[in-house]
Amino acid sequence: MRKYLLILLGLITIVFVSVLIILLNQGEKQPVEEEPIDKDGNENIKPTGRYLLSAGQTEYKILLPTEASNLELFAAAELVDIFYEATGVSLEVIKMKTLMWKDHIYPLDKPL
Fold this sequence. Notes:
Number of helices: 2
Structural class: alpha+beta
Oligomer: single chain
Shape: elongated
Order of helices and strands: HEHEEE
Radius of gyration: 30 Å
Largest sheet: 2 strands, parallel
């Protein structure tokens, strides 16, 4: 008999706590995520302030190791061609042994 009373008391406690949580959260608004596409079918993309092109020029460059493989050379050439077809601007390809970025030196001639 005592076992059944403990089970009943546990169930009543769970129901009471659940109702209390629901009542306390009723006034809070849940954050609503923006839909990626609006009602007209346009994408809701927020501007980042970063651009691949500005005034017909780009600051971006393709960095290759000095001893680039044929596959790396082919990939760079494809990227240059596709970028030019899309924008009318040609990306510069630079070959170098190391890259200095944020106070770190990265060797380009060795796998990371």
